[in-house]
Amino acid sequence: MAFKQVEADSFHWLVDMLESVEVGLVVLDLDFRVQVWNGFMENHSGITASRIREKVLFDVFPDIPKAWLSRKVDAVALLNTRAFTSWEQRPYLFKFRNTRPITGTEEYMFQNLTISPLSGPSGEVEKVCLMVYDVTNIASSKRALERANAQLAKLSTTDRLTGLLNRGTWENLVDAEYERYRRYGHATSLVMFDIDHFKKVNDSYGHLAGDEVIKHAADLTKNNLRQSDTSGRYGGEEFGIILPETDAEGAQVICERIREAMEKSVVETSVASIQYTISMGIAELSDKPENYMQWMQQADEALYAAKAGGRNRVKIFGR
Questions:
Q1: GGDEF domain: from which residue to which, for each copy (predicted)?
Q2: Predicted TM-score of the model (pTM)
Q3: Is pLDDT larger for residue 262 or for residue 156?
Q4: For the chain, which domains are there?
């Protein structure tokens, strides 16, 4: 009698522990009917154990990937061995809302999952146990770190004011395009341009207004380029554009579109409405430049020719 009382007490403690543990415990038969649904699952799903018992899991949670979970459970039952999945492979099995205040930026609970076989008296696997671990804190911290690293990587390659590529990164791409031309011989053009009389803008309206003009020029440039084109801020009010698969005539069409858009625009700043123009130089790559720097020099010479010709115009190198 005393032995039976010990057994009864042990069973009570075990049930109490299963109900209070901060891990989701779900026991399924091999037809995916719910046999056990502990307190963790009740709290996060809003569904009591009595309501879900003997119901097919997929009927209650249609969002669960049936084919994926079925393959996992079949393998566990066949091999009589555990299976594990992490939040990095699949963010969650049960789409529970995140209730942790520290990780409130995450909408849903990130979960690790263990699937364990449960054998009957015959030794055959009759059921499986899903153990659902809330790893939102870990996932949120790692995702935040990844976002920070991505932001740092972006900051190291982009110009902070305009969002265009910075000079070093853009020059590397000019070099790569030069090498691509040497290998394949496809037409490609380089453009250098700057804002006309930009010093007067700064002197008349201040550097903050000047920054607004630079940002405006960068935005208009991006909006008038193709997906394959690459723009960068070369320095100050000077910009560069790489136009792959484009000869000088094609580049001139693109540049005239950009130049006209800027000429017709008005930049609304806190101190004044500012209009501005740009001058642009184009260099179609040929076999003459011995390196990418000489190619850039040709585009720069075309830019200075545009300025010498009266500004607010596009010039092609050598013409």
A1: 186-319
A2: 0.60
A3: 262
A4: 2-143 (3.30.450.20), 158-316 (3.30.70.270)
